[in-house]
């Protein structure tokens, strides 16, 4: 944290503090140790004596138990000595950062603290409120603190614990940055006491300040005889315990201090020994040779905090939850914290020090359900039966979220909540990390993966019909006029001034038939045809626009590809340059006439609809008219969903325990760019593609909620097993390895038999003619290149590699019943080490295990150049498969072997 150094503290220095200066980055951290010594306030905290009890540094602590809503920080702890295990230390670097910020505003912060302490000591009979306290503070701390206090969005403190929390020194609070959480008490540990054991525990600030004043006055020089038989200086301490005092003994620069009570005091409050409790100025580590589990956990957290303060964030992952967040015991923050702890443990074992030191991954929870109140929840609560109330409450808090999203009334609210929360979190991160140029990914669980997928699929076309519209409207007819109506409704058939209107656009032919056009427009199904950017590009060109025959498809990508621009008109004759002005005038007149005629037909159609509605109300004896009016009202209702543009580009989309496959199947949607109608051989298929670089579907084999996605991308993957995620302790589990060996042996044996049966045919074909072999080889290679199907191309687009995979399955525990595994499999992803390892390996895929030196880089470049000169088409498995026997070789090795055999026979 690069702090503006100056010897004069106070409000002037506080005004120069900005979030950039408070960033806990490596460059700022390196300056802390040197710059903190230059503070004027720092000099009085340095050791002034040679006593063993003097020395060390100030350490900051945070309370394990959060504060209640109206509880002030000065009201806790109740005892003068902090209880062991009640408070945790901040990391060394975090403590330095907090202390540096504290010294810049020491007088102001101490004044505010003593006012709060006085209010807690003398204060009103009732519980003090934050409002009354803050009103007193606002007059003393200035306008900057007022703005930070009143507006939660502008509340900026000292970043700690990897940037997930910040410390508010005015109120002594530690609060979360990216979610609404409880405040925790922050304590400045300057004086410490050793109570019974070997650990030094911090004293409360009011006692520490009194001891510090006595220390600066060197009271041990004025020692007197005490009833205990010692020559010591007694310092009476004002605190919650009556009779509390400190005894200073020593001469010159050597002193010792004890905390004691009078005989009339409550002796059991702090359980004093005969000679009292030993005191120390400055932090000292524990002297125990066998640290307890709490101490080991504390040391591990400090190491993690120090690591986070040194390594910059290069990858941001938003964790989107699914169903169940309305349950009492469900908390996404705790789940993400558990996942963060699991990934840290796995990273220590599977990542190198170079990888860990190059980048850091920050996991931020996205709580879209918290704070979202839907209009139907109150009605559902009223109609819920009392029988098995607990079960009904659980179902209402889990399954009902899926029903709400499938409803056209609440779908918009849920989509807005997820999108706005993602943008809000990202802007918060940018505010604290300006200039961030790293990657952003999304980890979505359960229903959250469906919501994230729908948002990613509509980043270009921000308006789309309701995803489950087919459940509420009729099937769209196959009338050719429907395509024209879709084009008219999206504005894609309008031609710019200066272009000659073609008869193929259908504007003039359908101008007299406006009624069926508008009915078909209201009944369109699928996402909107073109976005604003596409329409602007179309209107910006001085070219005519023609439509392909497949414009019936409503997919935005396919419709965008079906626009064909040309420099000639539809008749194939170019417009003469001399007659260009006359053509423009004629086109303007023609467009004005068309607009006037369209307005006339709109008025006529509106009058006709009103007359039809009035006739259905007055004449109730005509059942046909009633049915017609009802059908028209249903057709006119097409719920539209408005999507929000994300402020960032998504690198990888992780769908974990996702029911996305069944949602897409119900919507009759496939993953593609809108050109797979012939590939899927189905007429009513809609295609869409998420706006991300890569996509993965991770699931447990017995998760009842999860489904596959690959069969909806490529038909050839339907019978292929998902990729098995490796076990985090190495390899595959016993039953998985045995099952793969058995299936692989059977398939390879069958392949060997098939190969032997075709050997004779291949040998005869090779021996016929060498010239024919060359032609056959060239045609075979050409056929191999063109054999790729539309689905395999979409797989490559979603994974980044030609043979990439989307579906990845976890390994279940050995000798465990499937139904027992299914009970907790859907919620176990947050605690699963295999899932954490898979995600870590992907996020660190671009970082080498060890740093590459200049010599190694030159050798790699030269070897790559040699390989490129010798081989044009090669497979990375070619060398590895060379040493394998033919029975255990794959299709690639068999193909390579046959090619090498033909080459050797020709030579």
Q: How does the SSE layout of this entry go?
A:
Elements: H1 11-15, H2 26-35, H3 40-43, E1 59-63, E2 87-89, H4 92-104, H5 106-122, H6 130-150, E3 158-160, E4 165-168, E5 173-176, E6 184-189, E7 191-194, E8 200-202, H7 205-217, E9 224-225, E10 231-236, E11 244-251, E12 254-261, E13 277-281, H8 293-310, E14 313-320, H9 332-350, H10 353-358, E15 360-366, H11 375-383, H12 389-406, H13 411-432, E16 439-445, H14 447-457, E17 463-465, H15 480-490, H16 514-522, H17 532-540, E18 544-547, H18 556-561, E19 563-566, H19 580-618, H20 623-636, E20 640-642, E21 650-656, H21 660-667, E22 669-671, H22 677-680, E23 686-688, E24 692-699, E25 723-724, H23 734-768, H24 770-786, H25 790-799, E26 807-809, H26 818-824, H27 833-843, H28 854-870, H29 878-882, H30 891-906
Parallel strand pairs: 14-15, 14-16, 16-21, 21-24, 22-23, 24-26, 25-26
Antiparallel strand pairs: 1-2, 1-6, 3-4, 4-5, 5-6, 7-8, 7-13, 9-10, 10-11, 11-12, 12-13, 17-20, 18-19
Helix pairs in contact: 2-4, 5-6, 9-27, 15-16
């Amino acid at each position: 944290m690069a702090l503006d150094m100056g010897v004069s503290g106070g409000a002037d220095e506080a005004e120069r503090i900005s979030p950039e200066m408070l960033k806990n980055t490596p460059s700022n951290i390196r300056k802390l140790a040197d710059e903190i010594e230059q503070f004027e306030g720092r000099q009085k905290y340095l050791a002034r004596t040679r006593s063993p009890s003097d020395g060390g540094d100030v350490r900051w602590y945070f309370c394990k138990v959060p504060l209640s809503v109206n509880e002030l920080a000065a009201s806790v702890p109740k005892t003068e000595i902090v209880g062991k295990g009640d408070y945790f230390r901040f990391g060394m670097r975090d403590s330095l950062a907090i202390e540096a910020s504290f010294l810049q505003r020491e007088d102001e912060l101490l004044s505010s603290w003593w006012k709060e302490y006085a209010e807690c000591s003398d204060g009103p009979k009732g519980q003090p409120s934050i409002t009354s306290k803050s009103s007193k503070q606002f007059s003393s701390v200035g306008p900057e603190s007022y703005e930070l206090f009143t507006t939660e969005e502008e509340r900026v403190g000292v970043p700690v614990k990897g940037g997930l929390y910040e410390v508010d020194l005015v109120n002594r609070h530690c609060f979360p940055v990216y979610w609404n959480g409880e405040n925790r008490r922050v304590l400045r540990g300057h004086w410490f006491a050793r109570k019974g054991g070997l650990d030094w525990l911090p004293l409360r600030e009011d006692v520490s300040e009194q001891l510090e004043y006595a220390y600066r006055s060197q009271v041990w020089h004025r020692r007197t005889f005490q009833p205990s038989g010692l020559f010591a200086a007694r310092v009476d301490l004002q605190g919650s315990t009556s009779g509390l005092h400190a005894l200073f003994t020593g001469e010159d620069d050597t002193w010792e201090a004890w905390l004691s009570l009078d005989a009339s005091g409550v002796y059991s409050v702090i359980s004093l020994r005969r000679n009292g409790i030993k005191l120390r100025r400055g932090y000292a580590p524990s002297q125990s040779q066998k640290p307890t589990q709490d101490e080991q956990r504390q040391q591990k957290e400090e190491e993690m905090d120090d690591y986070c303060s040194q390594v910059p964030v290069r990858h941001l992952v938003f964790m989107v939850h699914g169903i169940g967040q309305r349950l009492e015991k469900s908390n996404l923050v705790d789940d993400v914290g558990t996942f963060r702890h699991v990934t840290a443990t796995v990273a220590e074992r599977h990542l190198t020090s170079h990888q860990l030191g190059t980048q850091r991954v920050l996991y931020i929870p996205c709580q879209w359900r918290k704070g979202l109140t839907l209009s139907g929840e109150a009605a559902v609560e009223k109609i819920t039966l009392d029988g098995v109330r607990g079960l009904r409450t659980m179902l209402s808090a889990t399954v009902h979220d899926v029903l709400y999203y499938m409803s056209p009334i609440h779908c918009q609210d849920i989509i807005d909540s997820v999108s706005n929360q993602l943008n809000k979190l990202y802007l918060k991160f940018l505010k604290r990390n300006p200039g961030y140029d790293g990657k952003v990914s999304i980890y979505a669980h359960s229903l959250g993966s469906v919501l994230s997928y729908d948002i990613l699929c509509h980043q270009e076309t921000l308006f789309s019909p309701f995803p489950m519209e087919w459940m509420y409207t009729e099937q769209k007819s196959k009338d050719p006029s429907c395509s024209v109506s879709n084009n008219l409704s999206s504005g894609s058939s309008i031609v710019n001034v200066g272009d000659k209107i073609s008869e193929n656009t259908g504007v003039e032919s359908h101008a007299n038939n406006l009624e069926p056009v508008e009915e078909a427009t209201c009944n369109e199904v699928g996402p909107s045809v073109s976005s604003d950017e596409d329409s602007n590009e179309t209107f910006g060109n001085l070219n005519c626009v023609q439509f392909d025959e497949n414009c019936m498809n409503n997919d935005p990508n396919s419709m965008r590809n079906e626009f064909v621009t040309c420099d000639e008109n539809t008749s194939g004759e170019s417009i003469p340059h001399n007659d260009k002005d006359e053509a423009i005038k004629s086109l303007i007149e023609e467009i004005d006439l068309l607009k006037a005629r369209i307005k006339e037909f709109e008025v006529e159609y509106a009058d006709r609809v009103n007359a039809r509605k009035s006739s259905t109300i007055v004449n109730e004896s005509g059942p046909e008219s009633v049915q017609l009016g009802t059908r028209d009202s249903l057709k006119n209702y097409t719920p539209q969903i408005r999507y929000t543009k994300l402020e960032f580009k998504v690198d990888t989309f992780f769908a974990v325990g996702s029911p996305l496959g069944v949602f897409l199947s119900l919507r009759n949607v496939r993953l593609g760019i809108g050109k797979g109608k012939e590939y899927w051989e189905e007429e009513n298929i809609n295609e869409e593609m998420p706006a991300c670089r890569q996509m993965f579907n991770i699931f447990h084999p017995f998760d009842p909620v999860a489904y596959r996605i690959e069969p909806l991308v490529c038909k050839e993957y339907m019978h292929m097993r998902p990729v098995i995620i490796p076990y985090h302790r190495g390899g595959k589990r016993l039953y998985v390895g045995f099952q793969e060996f058995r299936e692989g042996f059977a398939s390879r044996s069958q392949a060997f038999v098939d190969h032997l049966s075709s050997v004779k045919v291949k040998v005869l074909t090779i021996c016929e003619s060498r010239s024919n072999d060359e032609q056959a080889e060239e045609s075979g290679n050409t056929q191999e290149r063109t054999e790729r199907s539309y689905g395999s191309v979409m797989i490559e687009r979603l994974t980044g590699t030609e043979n990439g995979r989307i579906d990845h399955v976890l390994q279940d525990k050995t000798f465990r019943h499937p139904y027992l595994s299914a009970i907790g499999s859907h919620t176990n992803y947050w605690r699963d080490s295999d899932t954490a390892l898979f995600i870590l390996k992907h996020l660190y895929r671009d970082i080498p295990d060890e740093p590459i030196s200049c010599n190694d880089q030159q050798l790699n470049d030269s070897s790559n150049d040699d390989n490129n000169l010798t081989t044009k088409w090669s497979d990375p498995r070619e060398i590895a498969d060379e040493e394998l026997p033919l029975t255990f070789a794959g299709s690639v090795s068999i193909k390579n072997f046959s090619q090498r055999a033909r080459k050797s026979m020709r030579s």
